[in-house]
Amino acid sequence: MNESDAVSSEISRREAIRRVSALLGGIAFAGGSRLLAALEQPRPPINGAYGKFSAEDIAFLDEIAETILPATKTPGAKAAKTGAFIALMVTDGYSPAEQKVFRDGMEKLDAAAQAYKVSFMAANSEQRLEVLNKLDHEQKRVMDARALADRHKPAGADTEPPHYFRMMKELTLLGYFTSQIGCTQAQRYIETPGRFDPCLPYVAGEPAWASHA
Amino acid sequence: MESANYDAIVVGSGISGGWAAKELTEKGLKVLLLERGRNVEHIKDYVNATKAPWEYLHRGGRTYAMEQAYAVLKRDLLNEKNLSFWVNEQESPYTEVKRFDWFRGYQVGGRSLMWGRQSYRWSDFDFEANLKDGIAADWPIRYDELAPWYDRVEKHIGVSGSVEGMAQLPDGQFQPAMPLNCGEELVASRVKTGFGGKRRIIIGRVANATQALEGRSACQYRNACWLGCPFGAYFSTQSSTLPAAAKTGKLTLKPWSIVTEILMDKDHKRASGVRVLDAMTEQSTDYTAKVIFVCASTLNSTWLLMRSATDVWPGGLGSSSGELGHNLMDHHFRCGAEGRLDGLDDKYYYGRRPNGIYIPRYRNLFGDKREYLRGFGYQGGASREGWQRAIKELGVGAAFKDETALPGPWMFGATGFAEMLPNHANRVGLDTTRKDKWGLPVLKIDCAFGENERLMRKDMIADMAEMLEHAGARNVETYDHGSYPGMAIHEMGTARMGRDPKSSVLNAHNQVWDAPNVFVTDGACMASTACQNPSLTYMAITARAADFAVNELNRRNL
């Protein structure tokens, strides 16, 4: 088989997958696009790691997420495997520029724990909370100032990547509150409500309804 | 062997094509329904309809790879959950002279699977507008001619809504209305007393059944319509018109069938059939019929006309008027205001209502006179904020988490949906330098909003803020997220109806002036946009045209 045959056979394989995906419908597209990605840029899975994120990275992200959303009367972000979700979303969802901000941010966050002469992983939960509280104030200051400066920019204009801790916080909230634990234990999830009651008494402390789609 | 000979051929199986197939088969015609994309079987193929949020790899969001593959869809609707219902942009490109967001669904059912379901009648304020303003071409029909067809459509598709007696938004054959929630009731009651009774907040009129219909359950308040409904509770081709057409035994549905051109009789006064390219095998087959209904969606219908009969009219079938491809329109939207409602923190709701509020047009009506022509309505609603509010808030740790899991403050927000004026300069044509996957020259779109639209947006923003202030909302914030033609997915025009073959492509019965057995009954036929969502009107126009076509066939006029 010469080189051009190899290329055309590769194209027809991809085409075949596309068509099978189309024939099978929506779920197959997600599967189909993953198959395509596997064909186009092989990415060996490493012990549940994603892209450039190692198992250690994911453990690190789990601890950040758990500090933001710890176990209380309901399970925390770590139980909901939020670290792995963050790694997946950064790998699959972020642009190369955003990925760099995020990766550099992981190092900056670890360095911030040096105020206590420990790494973030070695810090106790009070220390972790203080580190993240500081970073949270920093990201809010940066992002609020930017929102103010950008308010006259046309809609859809290119914006620079968010502060890395805004990224971490957003992905933690998204990962947790759309997880099975976040939907069914932290919030209330009803797949098929069956009716609509427009105005009911709300008793303080009742969790929010999780959305469907 | 399968027949190549039919009484009628319908091109496109979406909202309009489904209606054409239903009406023509029920009137006894043998119909071939052609769809360029794959088949989507009712319920069975709604593969994500009952998935929980956590069952999606990316929780329903978008990936960087998806954004690269869907450069157009990513401007608004791109998501993981119903991606398979949106067109493959690599296979089917188009050329944007100016930005035009063309969001397409190439499958059986078309965009009836993902549509917003808001269903409003137009009134004579709309049908008479071009004539009164002295612009574009007068609509060749008036409300009275369409009203019985609105009745017929609403009864079949199931539209829930409230009877309001408003001249600018005629009442219809409604199923029981969905209720306003307590936040919406609060704002509605205060707005009602504040603006001389001219501004009214009503529940959206929506093609979600609140009572069961044949083969369809009532709405289960899941608010996942855009994935396909396993209860068949909202109108789609699959839930409503396709089963009705299939029941007659007169329907042949052929997916993967790209109509490359309409074939003409030797004398060129009428069409003889269509040429179909099989999207999978790329084999070409001709089919003949007495009448052709072109319902491929606004721009696809015009694209097909432009590829047809070019040996007689170089610009394509219907181009003798000089108006084919011209007067492309869409609604403009994505601006308005939102604010926080106090005093309802001890109130919540149950169920996910797939519908919001509607504020019918009040500008340039009943003595109001603005510096622009026409007007706008609003769509929106009230709800308690979810966990997403916490992204911008300060906080980490246990108290932050537990607070975030509770329902947030009540918010009310709405966006205007506004009329765009017809303009000959807004046009589409063939880009002969570029071909799609099947070798067809792609469509080139050159369309922009004008000064009238820009002037109107000031009111769309200021009026909503004014209503919220009047209703006692706090922290009222206005916004304009920007709107580009196409984005509202209400693209209309390019083969307009009219009274004169010199200024319109279609006559009052949607017949192409130059080929009376070719009917175009989708959004392409529209001579103006009004500000109401247009799909209900496409359905009524299609049913009316189908009735006319069958009568003409029976009288041997076609």
Report on the structure:
The complex is a heterodimer of chains A (213) and B (558). Chain A is mainly α and 213 residues long. Chain A has helices spanning 3-24, 26-40, 55-68, 82-93, 96-112, 125-149, 164-177, 180-186; one strand at residues 197-201. In chain A, helix 3 (55-68) packs across helix 7 (164-177) and helix 5 packs across helix 7 (164-177). The longest helix of chain B has 20 residues, at 451-470. Chain B is an alpha/beta fold. Chain B starts with a strand and ends with a helix. In chain B, strand 1 (5-11), helix 1 and strand 2 form a beta-alpha-beta unit. The model of chain B has no long low-confidence stretch (mean pLDDT 97). Chain B is globular, with a radius of gyration of 23 Å. Strand 1 of chain A pairs antiparallel with strand 12 (347-350) of chain B, so a sheet runs across the interface.
Largest sheet of chain A: none
Total count of strands of chain B: 20
Low-confidence stretches of chain A: 1-47
Q: What is the percent of helical residues of chain A?
A: 55-70%
The total of helices of chain A stands at 8
Distance N to C terminus of chain B: 28 Å
The count of β-strands of chain A is 1
Q: What value does the Rg of chain A take, in angstroms?
A: 22 Å
**Oligomeric description of these chains:** heterodimer
Structural class of chain B: alpha/beta
What is the H/E string of chain A?
HHHHHHHHE
Hey, roughly how much beta strand do the residues of chain B contain? 15-25%
* Major sheet characteristics of chain B: 8 strands, mixed
Shape of chain A: globular
* Mean pLDDT level of chain B: 97
